[in-house]
Each structure stands twice: as C-alpha cells, then as structure tokens.
Amino acid sequence: MIRTLLATVLLAVSLLAQKPTVERLDQVRAELRPFLDALIQVESGGDNNAVGDKGKALGCLQIWAVYHADAVEYVPALGGSYRDVTDRVYAERVVVAYLLRYARMAVAERNYEVMARIHNGGPRGASKKATQPYWTKVRKEMTK
Known about the structure:
This protein has a single domain, classed as Lysozyme (Orthogonal Bundle). It has 8 helices and 3 strands; from the N terminus they run H-H-H-E-E-E-H-H-H-H-H.
C-alpha cells in the first residue's frame, strides 16, 4: 500500500516537473474554453489583429513580447515569433503555457480569478490590487 502511494506521488511529481507539449497545451485550451473566450472578449472584443498598450500588446489576447518570450522559454515546442500572437490558436497556446508556468495549481483547480489576474498582472498578478477590476470584467464576461 505504501509503495503504491509512493509510486503514485513520484509519478505525479515527475509529470508536474515536465514541460508541457503543444498537444497538452491544446488539451488545456479545450478545458479552459469559457475562460479563454472571456479573456478574448475583455482584451480585444475578439479582434485577432488588435494592437494596444501603445503598440506593446498584440492580438486578441493582447500579449506583450516579454509574456510571449516567457511562454516560449517554458514550452520551446511552441516556436514561432512574437508576431504570431495575432493567430488566435497560437495566442491561446501562449496564454496556456504562461499560466501553466506561473499558475499551475490555479489551472488544475480552475481558479479563474488567479489565472485572469496573472494574465493581466504578470507572475505575481494574483496578489496585486490593481488586477482586481480586470478579474471583475472577466468574471462578468464568463457569466454571460
């Protein structure tokens, strides 16, 4: 019994330590569909070619170059260039990679508030007071 439990724990730890594949990103994208759709509406109203933050944010999810670089560093299989975030599928993969890097437990628990606030405010965004209004917008969009 103890050996089985230990083997299960070790397997879980090793899986958490592995970087996700693009296939895993797509699986999580499907699981997070309502959340991603809400982010897209809040960020750009669905405009894949949106440009914001004085040219620093691109695409339907308003991704910055540093956010993209962070995600690709975590999941090198993403490949691509920053400009590719104007493709919706690619942009969603970038967001999922970023969230798996900085909010893995929130993703597993479907803690949409933590995920939204980290998307908006960076790795420590969930603890920033400034990201609370953003979460309110996302939550409202998710309940439509």
